[in-house]
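Morning!

This is the sequence you dropped in the shared folder:
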Amino acid sequence: MDPEKLQAIIDWLIDGASSAAQPEQVMAELAERLTACGLPLARAAVLVRTLHPQFMGRRFSWRPGQGVEVGTAPHETLLGPTFLDSPVRRVYETGAPLRRRLADPGCPRDFPLLHELAAEGMTDYFALPLRFSNGEVHVASWSTKQPGGFTDAQTAAIVAVTVPLARVSEVRALRRTAVNLLNTYVGNNAGERILAGQIRRGETQAIHAAIWLSDMRGFTQLADRLPSQQLIDVLNRYFDCQVPPIQEHGGEVLKFMGDGLLAIFRAARDGPELGAACAGALAAARQARTNVAETDTELAVPRFGLALHVGEVLYGNIGSGTRLDFTCIGPAVNLAARLEKLAAGLGRTVVVSADFSRHCGAALAPIGEFPIRGFRTAQWVFGLPEEAASSPGGDP
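The structure's back. Tokens below.
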């Protein structure tokens, strides 16, 4: 091992591994620097847990000539045999290093992974805890095919880089956790704005967007007769019918309001962008309608109501003091809310405004003109041609 090169690696990590923009680049550059320093690595992996609604963590695995493979582990992994019978779990639980000299005939191969590594020709496996400042334990593991395994000097080098690697991993993990949580609770675009520093109350901008406002029909009666956990399961399945189509067609979910959902499809004021936003919203609406109808009898149409409108909204931070909401408001949102209520009286799943309809041509059919509470003039309402109108009328 070259002491000067090893110190340079440690200094690079202490400096935040600034030459590597992404975590996988940190892993690749670290492994390559250690190899150049004289460490005979045949495999290296870092496993970092995170806060994410779907995944318990990410794994960065490096091999010579193959680069870094990034994998995500769902929460169910923690209950699976691969994790339960792994050296990673042992390090997580004990917080102590674990080493297995696979070249030694007397080495215990007490984990299935060790048999796999030995079959690849690995002679040594060394896993160490990466300790974060809050007490969390994450794991880095190192393997070699060098005859006899790692030398004492080589294991000392691995230990020497562990603490600065833990600091770099923690900083990168904290930012990713912040991104995950913001994306989960406020949406991708709003999350980016918040991380960029747009966190002052009243900091808003006027944007043009197609507006999506939906809710579940008969939710009050459903809540009255279903056990609480079953109700939550139904509600989650219902939102699963809508959110993927919205995101696939360029929309952004802003908030859930009980059984209601508010989303926008951003666009420029005029021109093809606005037409594309409306077309995307309508395509998402058709797919969501199909999804809800196919899920099960609890969610069958017409238990789903959706209004689509297009117009200018104020988009940004609204709230009180230190409790803010990144959302959109304005007359266009109010009209969408009124139209969503009108849909139930019309026996329709999807209703759209005249402004929205102008961007979608023959894809929509007129239903009629209706008075809308809070608006001075009656509004023309359009719907899907395949939906037959029933009981039109009513003042929402």
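Headline: The first helix runs from residue 3 to 14.

More detail when I'm at my desk.
O.
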